[in-house]
Amino acid sequence: MIGATGPVICVENHATFRTLLRCQRALQAPAWVAVAWIQGRNIAPLESLPDLPFTVTRLDYLGDLDAAGLAIAAAACATAERNGVAAQPAAELWALLLSQPSRPGGGPVSQADARKLTEWLPGSLRDPACELLTSGHVIPQEALRFDILVKAFSAVPRETTAPLPGGECRPVSRSEARGEFPVGFGHAVWQVGGAEQAGFEYFFLVEGQAV
After folding, report:
1. Residue 159 falls within a domain, yes or no?
2. Measuring CA to CA, which residue among 201, 203, 202, 208 is closest to residue 192?
3. pLDDT tens digits, residue range 61-82?
4. What residues make up the domain containing 203?
5. pLDDT per residue over 97-150, tens digit each?
6. Residue 38 · residue 76 · CB < 8 Å
7. CB–CB of 72/42 below 8 Å?
8. CB-hemisphere CA count at 13 Å for 197?
9. In this structure, is residue 23 part of a structural domain?
10. Could you tell me if residue 34 is inside a domain?
11. pLDDT > 70 fraction of the chain, expressed in percent and rounded
């Protein structure tokens, strides 16, 4: 809800962004006040978090479970923190991602590199994530489909908002209390609404949640 104060979930993949947005709109007690999307390694937009039209109390981040995804995640959170916003892994989502089937990736990561990459994750997830990297397998964030996310969130009470009895889900209209807005961050190019445009290298899109 625009004007609200609370945590924001940020992802690097457009498909996951849309899935999370749809999931949060379907829940009576959304976990975050907004869903944000940056494009891969282009983390500069996160410098504009303090300029959003609501107060971001925390940035939770989800990425791919592979070497590149973990490196981007750590860098993204470091950028947010340099700009005065607390940041951390979206722990429940990373745990859920680790429970999904893996697939062969670009080759095994050395034990030393895997340990370094996974130290950003919560302690309970570091060993299984390290094992995944050293095996040469990956789990893309798109593995968290809508049905998986809704089931997981419906079963877990939220600290940020009081869940309704039974944690039921209901469909929410996209037009209901919806807001989208661009975020400028010192670059001339940005977009809103999620429609990719040729030549748009950097952008940061946030959509307010229907609550």
Report:
1. yes
2. 203
3. 999 999 999 999 999 999 999 9
4. 6-65+72-89+141-208
5. 999 999 999 899 999 999 999 999 999 999 999 999 999 999 999 999 999 998
6. yes
7. no
8. 11
9. yes
10. yes
11. 71
Long-range contacts of 168-174 (CB under 8 A, 24+ apart): 168/28, 169/26, 169/27, 169/28, 170/26, 170/28, 171/26, 172/25, 172/26, 172/210, 173/210, 174/25, 174/210
With beta carbons less than 8 A apart as the criterion, state whether 132 and 104 touch.
Answer: no
Q: Is residue 40 part of a domain?
A: yes
With tokens 């916003």, the residue in question is 85
Residue 60: enclosing H or E segment and its boundaries? strand 56-62
Six token digits for residue 1: 């809800």
Distance, in Å, from the CA atom of 161 to the CA atom of 134, rounded to the nearest integer, reads 39
b/e burial code for range 46-63 (CB count within 10 A of at least 16 → b)? bbbbeebebebeebbbbb
pTM of the model: 0.76
The total of structural domains in the chain comes to 1
| CA separation for the pair 207, 2 (Å, rounded) | 9
Give the residue-averaged pLDDT of 44-67: 91
